Amino acid sequence: PFAAVYCLDMEEAALEQETAALKIQAIKRGHDDREKVTQLASAVWAAVAADDAAALAVAVEVEDLSALIDEAKRTPLRVTLDESKFECAAILVGKDTALGISGQYTAELALWNKIQADRKLAADENAEDPPDLESEDYQPGLVEQFFAADAKEGKHIVQRVFEIGVYQGGRAEKPGAGYEPAFDSEVTDREGFGINLGPKGDVYVGNYAAGMRSGSGVVRVSAGTTYAGEWKEGKRHGLGRMTYTDGSVYLGDWKYGKRHGRGTYTYKSGDYYAGGWSAGSKHGAGRYVQESMGATYEGTWRNGKLIAAKIGYAHGGASYEQRFDQPVNAIAYLQPGGVYSIGTKTTVPPPEDADEDAKPEETIVMGDFHAADHATDDMLKRQLLTVKPLLNVCIAGPPASGKGTAAENIVKEFGLVHISTGDMLRAAMEDADNEDGQKAKEFMEAGELVPDELIVKLVVARLSETDCISKGWLLDGFPRTGAQAAEMERNFLVPTKVVVLDAPDDIILKRVTGRRTDPETGKIYHMEFSPPDGEDKEEVMARLSQRADDTEEALTKRLASYAKNKQAVIDSFSDAFMVDANRDKKVIWEEIKAYLES
C-alpha cells in the first residue's frame, strides 16, 4: 500500500510539473505572439522591413519608438544597421527614443539633453539670459535638479556626462596587468554594439572594435550632418550615406574618411554627379546632371576637374570638349538637325599683371559641317574624349638590379616626375624651413633610422605638389616595408602600376662587389664588365677605390634587409609586375614599357 501511494504521489507531481511547463510555454508563446502582432501593426517596423525611408519618416512622428523591440531584443535602429538599410538608420538616429537607451542610462540621457540644450542657448547671440556652462554653479545646479536624493553619486555622474558623455554598450574583456584604460573611465575599450552620446552633442549608434568605430554604425553630428554606413579604425570606410548641413546627400564608397570609389552626390539644387571618386574629389568616369540648365555632362574627371566631356543639351544637341591643361583643345558640335562639325578652342591665359578676376581669352574655330548618323556619337567620343589614365608608378628592386636605368627610361618615355626617397629626404633636411626635414635630420645625426611616419609625411607632401598631380609620378625606393605600403594606401597614394625588378643574389653580388670609382673623375668602372681601358688604364686602375657599401659584407646585409620586406611590399600591391633583371637591358626595358602602356 505504501508503494502504491508513493507511486500515485509521483505521478501527480509529474503531472503538475508538466502542466506548469505547458502554462509557461503558453505564456511565452503568448508574449512572442504579442511581439509579432505589435511588429505587424507597427508602421515603423513595416517601413524598416520594406527599407522604405519615406514611409519611415512619417511613422517615426506618430509612434512610440521606445516600445519597439523585435524577437531578438533589437530596436528598429539596430535592425537597420544589421541589414545595411542606411537611409532608414539616418532617419531613426534623429530620434532620441529610437536610440535604445535603457535602464540607468535613461536618467543620464535626460541630463545629457539638458546640457546640450544649454550649450545651444549659450551659443545663441540673441539669448536674453544664456547659461554659463563654465561657471562654478552650473554643475552643482544640475546635481540638485537631477540627483537631489543622492548628491554624492550625482556629482560624479554630472561630471562624467558633462566631460565625456554617455556610453551604453559592450566592452572588451578585462585584460592583464599593464593595460592602459580607455579615455572615458577605468574600464576596457568599447567593443561590440554600443550607443555613445558625445559631450558636445554628437550621437553614435553602432559597432566598435578596439575602442574605435568599426563595422556598421550611424552618427548624428551636432553641426547637422548625419552618416550611416560602414566604418574602419574610427573612419568612414566602405558603403555609406552622408547627409550634409545644406541638404546635399552622398551615397557610395568611402575610404579612410573620404569619398573614394563609386558614388552619387546629390546637391541641394537637385543637380547630381554619379561616377568615380578619389580622396574626396571627382575622379574617373562620371556623369553630372545639371537640372537647372537642362544639361548633362558625361566624361572624365581628374582630381575634381572635368578634362573631357560630352555635354548634352535640352534641345537635343551636344558638344564634345577637351579641357586639358594645354593651349589648344579639340571641340565638336552635334546639332539637333543631324549635322556635326569638329574644330579647336585656343585658350590664352590673362597676363601676369592682370586683375584677379580677369578671365582667359578663348577663340573657337570650327570646320565644315558633315551629316551625322548612328555612329557619329561613338566616333566623336572615341576621337575627342579618350583619356589615357594618369600613370603613378612605384619601382622596387635590390641594389644593382637596374632600377636606376629603368627609372631613367620611364621618366624619358612617359614624362613622370621622378621621386627618389633618398634625394627627397636629403633635400628636405637641407631646407631649414621644412619642419619634417629638420626632424628627420635630427634622427640621422643621432645615428637613428628615420621613423616610418615621418618618411610617409615627406612622401605625401612631395606627391601632393602640382607637378606630381598633373604629370604623374615615379616613386623610387618607397615603400620599403609592408607598413609603409599600408600608410600609402591610408593617404590615397596608390600607384596605378608597380614594377619589381628581381635577380639572384649571386648575380647582384658580382655586379656590386666588382664596382670601383675613380676619385678624380667620378666615373664608375666594373672590374669584370667594364674595366678601365686606353693608354692610362694602369694609372686609373691604381687609383680606383671601392665604396664602403659595395663590399660583400655590407651588401649581404642590404640584400637580407630587402628580402625580409620584399614579399610584404609585393603582397600590398596585388598587380605588381615582376621583371627578370638578369637579362639584356633592351629586353628588360621593352617588357617594362609594354606593361606600363597596357
Give a nutshell description of this structure.
By secondary structure, the protein is of the alpha+beta class.
* Strand order in the largest sheet: 1-2-3-4-5-6-7-8-9-10-11-12-13-14-15-16
* Largest sheet, strands/sense/barrel: 16 strands, antiparallel
Strand content: 25-35%
Report the strand count. Answer: 23
- Shape by Cα distribution: globular
pLDDT < 50 stretches: 1-8, 26-40
Mean pLDDT score, rounded? Answer: 88
Distance from N terminus to C terminus (CA atoms, Å) equals: 99 Å
Compute the number of helices.
Answer: 19
Spell out the key features of this protein.
single chain; 598 residues; alpha+beta; 16-stranded antiparallel sheet; five-stranded parallel sheet; 23 strands; globular; disordered N terminus
Written account of the structure:
This protein has about 600 residues and is α+β, with helices and mostly antiparallel strands. About 40% of the residues lie in helices and about 25% in strands. The protein contains 19 helices and 23 strands. The strands form 3 sheets. The protein has a 16-stranded antiparallel β-sheet with strand order 1-2-3-4-5-6-7-8-9-10-11-12-13-14-15-16, sandwiched between helices. It has a 5-stranded parallel β-sheet with strand order 18-19-17-20-23. The protein has a two-stranded antiparallel ribbon with strand order 21-22. Strand 10 (about 280-290) and strand 11 (about 295-300) form a beta hairpin. The model is unreliable at about 1-10 and about 25-40 (pLDDT under 50).
